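Submission sheet (multi-component)
Chains listed below:
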Amino acid sequence: MEEKISIEEIRKEENLVFVKTKLLTDKSLSYCPGCGHGVAHRITMEVIEEMDLWADAIGVAPVGCSVLAYEFMNIDMQQAAHGRAPALATAIKRLMPNKLVFTYQGDGDLAAIGTAETIHACNRGENFTIIFINNGIYGMTGGQMAPTTIPGMKSSTSPYGRDVKIMGNPLKITELVATLPGTYSVSRHSVHTPGNVRKAKKAIRKAFENQKLERGVSFVEIVSNCNSGWKMTPNDSNIWMEENMFPYFPLGDIKVDGELVK
Amino acid sequence: MKELRLMKGNEAVAEAAIRAGADGYFGYPITPQSEVLEYLMTEKPYEKTGMVVLQAESEIAAINMVYGGASCGKKVMTSSSSPGISLKQEGLSYIAGAELPCLVVNVVRGGPGLGTIQPSQSDYFQATKGGGHGDYRLIVLAPASVQEMADFAKLGFELAFKYRNPVMILSDGAIGQMMEKVELEEQKPRWTDEEIVEISPWATTGKTPDRERNIITSLDLDSHRHEKHNEKLQAKYKKIQENEVRYEKIHCDDAEYIFVAYGTSARICQKSIELGRKKGIKIGLFRPITLFPYPSNALRELSQGLKGILSVEMNAGQMIEDIKLSVGTTFNVEHFGRMGGVIPTPNEVLEALEQKIIGG
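Outcome: structure written.
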């Protein structure tokens, strides 16, 4: 007869391979199963914990799916009006230059309604970090076309696919901000495989380290899926993202130490 | 020691803010208030007191910088004029909803739209009845002199922190642009980090092990809980109405008629009173200093012995609604105003009283 192992035995310290960071609350995530937000939240909080910056961290939540980020991130946070997170972060960092200040924004927030705030904070060279989750759609309001919806991609307001002749072009805001003198580091990642999660986490750590250098904005884009908005299974959405999003939004470094990557 | 200077209203509010220990100013140029930012950039308080001064990319960015700074428990402010104040309404609604202290100066010009750059009082409704979306109120102070532009910077910050509520100085292009002597208070030190934690324990200053995380938000998706939040805001506004009413009475003791006016209009009415009294008309002035809370009770009491009230405003008749709410709709109240940036003369104000109230 097989020996039954008790749950207490499994929970022994030597068996631990993962511990949830204290910087995430116990509240159940409001994100759809399969969405990348949860992983992006976790790695951001893990980095702050590993860098021992809990008491210094001030985050700014956007309007969009991650509007309730402050429910999950166990740090001091402010909830901004739609698109205005970089304006809040500008003031926070200037008034408290020793704090670790970051915004966490989606594509509608950062690249549509908040374009002016994004570009001007990046151009002034504010010393905070922007974490930009790009899933090419307005998730919270039910899957409308976003500034980063790629050509041909379907959404509730581009039901036959984005026709750039009618709806205009998607905005590659990350490439755009990389050209501004006020950005110090700009890179694009994903969190859909363990390898990519590790790279994204490393990039967030580097961005926070760069913030300490006071040489301008450190900007990390995470291309993510929105299986609900895209109307796919989580797995299909990740495959679709690899095949369609990554060619349009290629992963990797765009600007390193103030220099554009050739 | 206090210091006497000859200054523009816009300069006085800026200098007084520095001296009140302000931590930050975020603004955007617009006539007739650009001197506020110009003065601050010339004075460089960031080198003297450490006060942050930043020209934002828009009024929208400026008010949201104020939101971010206020969330950290800092003494922050912005200023603008009517079209720019319209752009700030979204931010003001968030700030009021999240219960944050801040100071906003509106040097009013004529509207609607781009309107004119000349002085006006046509933003009374916007300032006193809400402005942005949702049930909220600003504390509204109406200066009638350069001295009051300076005094209300300090008072504004005090009230803002006392009630965790945005305060607006509702000035106008005349008060902002004219020069008068002004007595300035001594430089107050800015609050230290420790003082901020003590004064504003709710502020996002970084989560230390001794407390739970602080969250600044105006959002609550639970409608019953959000109703409770609204009830709390309304209770606060009621308390403000009970405690913070300010007004001035001039020549009211023997008056049979009064002007009710604030800001530039109140100054013109003082001259009209001189002219009227020479003709034997017993006339006084009731000047609301707080427009929210409106001095309704004081005005009602004063009206008991009066024959009539003329509301004098540089608009189409906005404050008159609050006067009628105070004294009742059957009372002899009329409005006289000029619009579009035109300032009434003392003579035409007196004539209006004679025709609309005394002869009416």
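Remark: DSSP finds eleven helices and ten strands in chain A.
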